Amino acid sequence: MGRNKAKIKNWREGRRLHAIELKEQGWSHQEIAEALNVSKAAVSQWMTALREHGREGLRARARPGAPRRLDPQEIKRLPDCLSHGAEAYGFRGAVWTCARVAAVIKEEFGVAYHKAHVSRLLKELCWTPQMPIERASQRDEEAIEKWRIEVWPVLKKRPSKRA
Which domain holds residue 80? Predict the structure, then answer.
């Protein structure tokens, strides 16, 4: 396995290549399966792939999936759309949720996304929608600070109901 180490893309590929080396040393499929904590059927599939495609048949490949419905330019535009705030799109309150973002994507780009996928998309963009960007305009910082200094310590000192 040492000579192939630099070429291994992931641990699963490494495990398959290790299985080949064990087979070359005379191990049975059952012994390999037990040593690598996989099923005997998996080892058999790996050996078939080796026979039919050589070592290349055991290499890690990109998993197939549906193509993205938003193109890269649209994905880059999404944070700009969201920066206008949820209220700009007719939502009540400034907090973004995945369902709201999905609605904006549908409105702006004509593409429907499930809210679970929206979460992955936002994570990829390093964009966290939960907190409003701006504070409420009615917020009175002086009153809040006064409450923290005068009222909060008194509330903390009250005896518990158990006492």
Answer: 72-124
